[in-house]
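It is worth pausing here to work through a concrete case rather than discussing structure prediction in the abstract. The textbook approach is simple: state the sequence, then state the predicted structure, then interpret. We follow exactly that order.
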Amino acid sequence: MRPSKKKILVVEDESLIAAELAESLRESGYKVSGAVPSGSKAIQFIEEEIPDLVLMDIGLQGEMDGIHASREIQDTFDVPVVFLTSHSDKKTVERAKEADPFGYILKPVKEGDLMASIEFALHNHRKEKELKQNEKWFSSALKSIGDPLMIVDPHGEVTFINRAARALTGWKKSEILGQSFKKIFQVVDDNDKQIPVPIDNTMHKGTSLVMKYNLVLSSRGNVKVPLEISLTCIQDPKKNIIGVLVMFRNASESSGTMEGREKLLSNLRTLFGKDIKTQKSMLLCPICKMVNDEKEDTWNQIEYYISQHTDSDLSHCICPNCTKKVFLNVDEMIRQGVEKSQKKLEDEE
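Step two, the predicted structure:
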């Protein structure tokens, strides 16, 4: 099976150079989807046919130079651009950097440099798209969780807060993002003594922690909210710590469930004809629904666990396996998609 040819659009106002580039690209196994002499015509072309990459001369004639055209192409169509230029002066390079190109090649263009730049640009663009998809999936997963939560980066700044957390703390999203977690998230005990939330320690050790004490969140407006807090360290696929997931629950809300829970216990005792062991609190992963067994330090199916621990207050904490899946599942999905596409091409051939 032959790999599909990547489509390259050449944007060059010197016809001889454009023809030489197109010939080199074809000889190297690429498909030249077109060659246009200006930035405006490049945009018109891409509106009709999306290439995999654009080779863009910086010094194009007309109102729209290559840098201006590159910004619009990457922002509107998400197509990587590699710059071609005869200039390497500081001013030109600084302007080019502002457009975030995926490559920068000096003329006269050497075939080896051209091919290497194209392959690196395609690779980096593919990885960037995977990262964006991963971040989108992760954000959607967090938004779907009903409990209040925040994400704190390695610098101790809040980078994500869901609607439930905003409602509980009284902070607006625009007011809290980028702010120091320690400054805006004040926790005190019953005697109004401030209790530090061990964000730094959690990151340093790379572990998870649950604070089950009688804590009180001093929210905006000095409203005191009793709560429990769980801290889960977030790692990227290379095991680098990139933040902490902070989930917390309004402990006062659990008191209203006591009557219903006691009724459930009574029904279960009648059903099973035996005493049911109880536990004051337990952790439930909101993604896989596995329950944490503190004594054994394991995660078990809730169906198995409920027969022994039904007298419980459920709170959410993402388990280590699901934390890994959040960051690794996109690679697996892409791999499976590539395999399906390859099989389809083989069948067509």
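Step three, interpretation. Residues 130 and 300 are 32 Å apart (CA to CA). Confidence is low (pLDDT under 50) at residues 267-280, 327-331.
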